[in-house]
Structure formats: C-alpha cells, structure tokens
Amino acid sequence: MTGKWTGIYQHESKRIPENRRNQQTRFKIEITQFDGKNFSGTIEDDLETGGTRGTGIIEGKIKGNQLRFIKKMPIQTSLDKNGNIIEEQKPHRSIFYTGIIQNDTVKGLWRFKFGIGIFQGKFAIFPSIKGSWEMTKEPIQNL
Which residue from 2, 26, 41, 43 lies 20 to 30 Å from 52 (Cα-Cα)? Predict the structure, then answer.
C-alpha cells in the first residue's frame, strides 16, 4: 500500500455547474504509513485540471478489498454558479472516499457531507456533493 499513486476524480452531482460536471481532476497521493489496516499520507491535486491548491493529508483504513479514507485540504475551495473556483484561506471541508482495491488499482466514490458554516464572511449551506474516483499505484523505480 505504501508508495506513490496517481489518479483522477470527477464531480457528478447536478448541483455542480454543467461546465465542471464530469470534468476529470488529476491528483497524486503518497502513502507513507501502513500497518496492514490503517494508512496515512499526503495528497496534491493538479491545479491545471481544476484541483484544490495545497498539500493535504489523507487518513484511512483497509478491510479486505475495501478502502476508505478522509481527505483534508488546507485551503477552502468552492465553485460559483459559473464553475469558477473561489478560495478562502482556511481548511477545506473533509472529503470522504470509499473504494474497492483490485490489484494495484482502486475505484470508488467520494462525497462531501451536508454542512453549514461561514464562507467569504457569510452564512453558507454546503450541500452533499458526490462523484467518482480511481487511482493506480506507480511502479517502484529501480536506481
């Protein structure tokens, strides 16, 4: 499980502006700790494909061939009604990932839970949003 992984995620919710729906965002994960059940590491989204700025952390568990983890990014990011990215200098809401492991590939779903809070100084309702994702382990480079 430890090592570098690359993948994509996409929004599939009808609440997302149409120009962003089903757009694939690339990401890279490095899993640095794994005890046979629990794992942790870092994640970086690709900005050129619509990702969130900053290096985030992931913490998760594996049970059989099922994987789940929470992604925590350092910068709050939302989309306006036209699909433009809006950033705020505070931590992003947690994103929950689940997936099925098959060989060195994981495929599954991600989601934001419904929530309320403050965004850009105003009261905000954060709807539940979901999408799909997948990642593949990069081969180990021999020196």
Answer: 2
CATH of the domain at 78: 2.40.128.120
Decide if pLDDT at 142 tops 70: no
Residue 142 lies in a domain: no
- Say whether 34 sits in a helix, a strand or coil: strand
Work out the average pLDDT over 37-64.
96
Residue 15 belongs to what domain range?
3-137
CA angle 73, 76, 78 (to 5 degrees): 120
Tell me the one-letter amino acid at 49: T
In this prediction, residue 27 has a pLDDT band, given cuts at 50, 70 and 90, of: very high
Number of domains in the chain: 1
pLDDT surpasses 90 at 12 = no
H helices within 28-90, ranges in order? none
Nearest to 1 by CA among 101, 81, 124, 129: 101
95 part of a folded domain: yes
Per-residue pLDDT at 123: 87
